[in-house]
Amino acid sequence: MPRAASICYVRGCTKRTVYRGRCGGHAPPAWEAQSARNRQRGPTQRAWDRLVRPRALARDNFACVRCGAREGLEVDHVVPIARGGTWTLDNAQTLCSVCHQAKSATDRHSR
Question: Are 5 and 50 in contact (CB under 8 A)?
Fold first, then answer.
């Protein structure tokens, strides 16, 4: 059964909705929609910061797993979340900021 038509959420507008409860004139541009990576920090990200990140740093002896640097450390997802990676310890690795930037660039170009 088809869904009943609804009117725009914007006060005073009586046009039919097209996208996210708004008519064509009030709908936000598609590029303003937030991706999974750009949403506000949810419970999984807070758990990552509190539980996984410190354990990954300790497991990797507070050193970059690629070059061994001990400054500017960041905990990275081995398989990015956007590509099906998980928020678990086995998908975490410690990288220095230089190695992290290089890995991120490689991930972007290997799509």
Answer: no
Same domain, 6 and 25: yes
Residues 28 and 50 in one domain: no
Domain that holds residue 102: 41-109
Give the single-character DSSP code of 50: I
pLDDT in tens, 44-102: 777 888 888 889 999 999 999 999 999 989 999 999 888 888 889 999 999 999 999 99
DSSP per-residue codes, 29-73: PGGGS--GGGSPP-HHHHHIIIIIHHHHHHHTTTS-TTT---SSE
My answer on whether 50 and 101 are in the same domain is yes
Give the pTM. Answer: 0.60
Regarding whether 61 and 95 lie in a shared domain, the answer is yes
